Amino acid sequence: MKNNRIMVLAALLACSACTSIWANSIASKMTDNLLLLESLEGELVQKKILPDAPAVDVRQSVIYQKPWKIRAEVTAPASIKGSLFLYDGNRSLVWWPTELFGMRVSNISSPDRDGIFRHLAHESTVALRDYAFSMSGVEKVAGVDTNLWKVLPMVDDGYHHYHQMWMVERYSIPLKVEILDKDKKLWYGMEYKKASFNKPLLDNAFAFEFPSNAMVIDFDYADPGISLEEARRTMNFTVMQPGKLPDGLKVTKMIRAKGTVPMLDMIMDQGGTRVSLFQSHAFGTTPLMKFGKEVRIGKNKGMLSFTGPFSTIVWIKDKTQLTLIGNLSYPQLLQLAASVE
After folding, report:
1. pTM for this structure?
2. How distant, in Å, are the alpha carbons of 67, 98, 139, 179, 313 from that of 297?
């Protein structure tokens, strides 16, 4: 019996080692592929993303430029036109024009190759643990050849879904994704209707200024951090923190917003992994975000949205509005959000 246990343990360790080697190999290839991509300009459609109008598509213009600059701006429907997510190599901006409200975070450095590799190695390890993958052919999306991958969840926790991804192998990016619910109906979809690679972009492609009548909350990563005790003393809401973080992550810094508005950014960046938990007083009972997938965060309702490699979750708990943004897979972010208290 003892020998059998030793053999099982050895097999598990060997399996774990193989997974690690395979994940590192995948991450190295994906990193090289991503660094080949000089630019992308496209028209993106997201489906099943408006809670009050699930049949209405959200259309966005998307621009990417190496290294890691991205701009995603809503062009339709009219009710949320102009909503924007932008990273210009130094500043990250979010803009909700219907509320005339924006957030700006300055002095965010771009990760280097090693940071990107380590992030992708983590994500590949988690994906190989949680899903089974199979490639089922080559199909065109936006006129581009893509490999169709079918992804079967190996965990039944309410966070993981069956999905299909149409990947451009040369650049390791998806041009189409379909995520299905437990009844195999579309839960969320995104698809590029147009996509062009490595073409020159306009000089002002990533330029943006908030209107003069906008309310803008400013953060600066170069500011000195504050302690948890100071945050709890100076904020006008209950300061919360994650109870459980993914392996390798920890809270590295907390900064408060500039000006008089009490607002906190709890930063958990590690190399190429970027995660922030913004906190502020909740002035209502529903989150600010107007589009996304409705999700449950414990006993609270939240909104989950997607922008390129980043996912955003917004929810309200005990009169604190929480906004979690990161480039971890959305099941990891949902699990992280559920641990915040």
Report:
1. 0.91
2. 33, 26, 36, 20, 9
